[in-house]
Specification:
mainly alpha, DNA polymerase, domain 1, hpI Integrase, Chain A, 2 domains, two-stranded antiparallel ribbon, 14 helices, 4 strands, 55% helix
Length: 294
């Protein structure tokens, strides 16, 4: 990447951090995408529409999701250049646009989640701090639908006694209310008795908080303890389970969207695929024609 391009990218990332509230992880992904594009284009800031049209061939071996993300990063970058008066034309219309099918989420059955809780509760009964912490993590993942980053970065005082919700800052620095069950509140209260003094975090680790990677490892270990294949389970799978099981229980899709922090209802609608049997049963039992004789 040329020095001029690097300066433009740095300026773009500063804007994304300040105005869009992008996380360090998101900023690193943008930088990587733009650097890879610069390798193929030569000059990123001066690239023409014809130059961008050739990226489809250069990136032919990439997975569709990766190709879509890189194209989106470039479109955002060129939009920034235009908004800041650094460029008068937008060449991004010629970027490759792969057709993507939204993958269906992996979901655990309620019985499998129950087995994870039973195994975690049995370990936590010993009073061993790591086991108590792990049960608390499980309660908050499945009981509140928190994202991994939201969970591990919770401040020590996030869950207050008698307050059935907490405020989290999710994607794009957007705040939302998250429900806290009485079970989760009790688990947090027990864990707080074991948390070392002086820490700012609910789940401390070293000088900071528990990492997402460590949370991933913990969740998989709990799945193995319950006799579930570890590769089937992750923090995000438990978030999916929270959503699908709530929907099966009759939760409104708009309420679910709010609880999950989805900006677009279309993202939430993917959970309806697991509920087709309940929807058919609902039509057969509640539709006015269901009570009429044949």
């Amino acid at each position: 990447m040329t020095p001029d391009d690097r300066a433009l990218v740095d300026r773009f990332l500063d804007m994304m951090a300040a105005e869009a509230g992008s996380s360090p992880h998101t900023l690193a992904a943008y930088r990587n995408d733009l650097e890879r594009a610069a390798e193929s284009l030569g000059s990123l800031g001066q690239a023409s529409a014809d130059d961008l049209s050739r990226l489809g061939a250069a990136w032919a071996e990439l997975a569709p999701a990766t190709l879509a993300r890189r194209s989106a990063s470039l479109r955002r970058f060129f939009g920034f250049l235009i908004d800041d008066g650094l460029r008068g034309d937008d060449p991004s219309a010629t970027l490759p646009r792969p057709r993507l099918e939204r993958p269906l989420p992996r979901v655990l059955e309620s019985g499998e989640v129950q087995r994870m809780f039973e195994a975690a509760e049995e370990r936590a009964a010993s009073g061993e701090p790591a086991a108590v912490r792990n049960l608390t993590l499980l309660e908050l993942l499945y009981g509140s639908g928190l994202r991994a980053t939201e969970l591990v970065s919770l401040p020590r005082g996030a869950v207050r006694p008698g307050q059935p919700f907490l405020m989290v800052r999710g994607k794009g620095s957007k705040e939302r209310l998250v429900p806290i069950s009485s079970r989760a509140e009790a688990a947090v209260g027990r864990w707080l008795e074991l948390v070392p003094g002086g820490t700012l975090w609910l789940f401390p680790s070293g000088k900071s908080h528990l990492s997402r990677v460590r949370l991933f490892q913990i969740v998989r270990a709990m799945a193995a303890d319950a006799g579930i294949a570890p590769e089937r389970v992750s923090p995000h799978v438990l978030r999916h389970a929270f959503a699908t099981h709530l929907l099966s229980g009759g939760a409104d899709l708009r309420v679910l969207q709010s609880l999950l922090g989805h900006a677009d209802i279309a993202t939430t609608q993917i959970y309806t695929h697991v509920d087709s049997a309940r929807l058919v049963e609902l039509v057969n039992s509640r539709h006015p024609l269901a009570t009429r004789g044949r």
